[in-house]
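Blinded run. Sample ID left blank on purpose so nobody reads anything into the name before looking at the predicted structure. Input follows.
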Amino acid sequence: MNDWTNGLVSAPPPPLKRPKITRGKHVRRDRKLTIEQANTIRTLYAAGGVSQTALAAQFEVTQALVSVLVRNLTYREEAAGGLS
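Blinded prediction complete.
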């Protein structure tokens, strides 16, 4: 027999339930940037000569956010209407 069956160790806690977020329907109210700022970052990066890290520092966001911005994965134009 082991400690579990002897009752010496309590059962493990149940797994945490995380809220399900449906892609494209979750509206963020705490955005770090406006759509205009996101488009400015895209334009500056596309022009070349500036790194994602430099843009992140300039706009006070993370490099990861700049990366998804320039790949157009977030802050898309339709986001202005409340999506994404």
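Unblinding after everyone has recorded impressions. The chain is about 40% helix and 0% strand.
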